[in-house]
Design brief:
about 325 residues; alpha/beta; Spore Coat Polysaccharide Biosynthesis Protein SpsA, Chain A; 10-stranded mixed sheet; 11 helices
Length: about 325
Amino acid sequence: MPKVSVLIPAFRPDHLDTCLASIMAQTFSDFEVLIGDDSDGEDVAAVLSKWDDPRIHYERNPRRQEPGANRDFLISRASGQYLKFLFDDDFLLPRSIELLTAAADQFQAKLTFHGRHIVDGSGRLQYSVCAVPEGRILGISPEFFFENLVAAMFNFIGEPSNILIDAETLRSIANPFGLEDMRMRFLTDVALYSNFAHRELRTVGIGQHASAFRTHGAQSSNVSQPIFAAGLFEWELFARWAGDHGHLSSEATRAAVSLIHQSYFPYVGQLNELANFLALGSEPDASGRFFGAEFRAVLDDGWATVDARKRTRVTA
């Protein structure tokens, strides 16, 4: 049984070679690589055909392009103590897995992360992010998480390519990439981290840059993509939920919702669903809840709109 299962939910061949090469160059070698192919054709398989390493395992996702299915399929196939996600267009620096597993073992952490570089489509550095002072390892308290990540709309932990998760802990959470009964359309990583913080599961950050997140026009974070709006209004979901669950004070929740509403203004003309969130304002409802029935109705309508937009894009 390997110490780490590296999970690559793949559907784009463009940077897959770089992604795989970054795993094979790791200073830590006790891992398996599981690749789930969610693509339409044979391009991903063609890239993998030249790789000959017994640690690499390739399978087609049996529920192709169903939201979250490729990720969940890979989790079900993993046998490692820890899970390390890596998107097919991202890559790791050589000590990534070594640093993450050492910190997880030393501090019995359920989720560990390090700093990352943000690069463009050609791999050129744009900027770097690291929430922990260089050379240090720090625990992230639930209070710090909700006040500095959720309320500030700043994902300092980073994308799934930047983290390591205890596999048993992840599997113990009924809906780890959602929140309660809700399925995220965009911020699945923030949902995961919120679930860990809400349950007070130990999270540790490492003050060293050891992965790279690639930005390009085909990503969901591009305004032209159909689910872009969810990447804005799902922040409001987390802030309101955190306020009702005692993770943020009423004052902090109001301030967070107001900040999130400011992010809607540049897009409200082209993404009409954002206007409904703005109309609610930042005050709690008559029952004193920030995440009440009225907000849930607006949220469900917002998700329905982005789902319809996505279906239209697929069938066009």
